[in-house]
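This part of the workshop introduces the protein records we will be handling. As an example, a complete record with its sequence and its structure tokens follows.
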Amino acid sequence: MSAVAAPRRRLSPRAKAGLGFFARYATIFGLLAMILAFAVLSPRAFPTVNNFTNVLNQASLAMIIAAGLTLAVVVGELDLSIGFAASLHGILVTGLIVSNKLPIPVAVLVVLAAGALVGLVNGLIVTKVRVNSVIATLGVGTILTGLAFAYSAGVPIVAGVPESFLQLSLGRWLAGVPNNIVVVAIVVGGLWLLVERTALGQEIQAVGGNPAAARLAGIDVDRIKILGFVISGMCAALTGILLASRLGSGTASAADSYLLTAFAAVFLGSATLRDGEFHVLGTLIGALIIAFGFNGLNIFGAPTFSQYVLQGAILIVAVGLSSLGRSIAES
């Protein structure tokens, strides 16, 4: 006689509401608790305007590349090429300025166009060739790494970088606010408006939610997916440009580490305010959690390896909270 599996016990409405509240707001409460703890433990160094400005400035590039990645993830795909692409674009912009003597605005526009092209290639491979996005973007990223080493011969481009290019990232042109923070506000604000307040944004969310239903509703699913990759590619290019400006050089692997940071921010953000949904505002909050965590570790003199431990732990927790939010929403 075969055993009959017992039916799964359903959560009571109160328990479901409580878990849903935790899944939506745990990351925000965690951020506030972390800031409070660091402020109490280091009242002179941590809770200052200069330190908070420094945190936002240091986290700005991660916020930009993560915001772009969010668009690719919202349409249901993954872009593993962004870190490698940002490294290549950093080398490319410095090379165009130093070796080809292009004016800085022209070099920046060329590299942003190159970022859009990388995104377009990723999107076409995924939508037209039907290659899984993980494989496609990882392959493209590997190719970009090879191109970066080929373009620079593995040597950082340092000599001849003009001071005016450095001021793109290091300057404070708007009321003393670091330029990178201003750029973050523009990029994140613009992407939030695109996704949340436009008809195109509704199509983007529809494709990510149910591609088959979106196609039946007359939405060009492939076009929307390609758009997500193009935006991701352009944000990676912008990150590479600003990183090269901050470092004063173009280096073949300078931005590779931003891949993990971006994914941690995106998945942590999906557990914020919504039931496991990816969104730009959540990604911003996720990036802030990582940034303040790193800042606290630095203030207390924690060894470098602890940052990698924290980042990996945050990614695991983020995916767990995101899964919890989805399971609650579907129960």
Remarks:
- The longest helix spans residues 13-41.
- The mean pLDDT is 89.
- The chain has 13 helices and no strands.
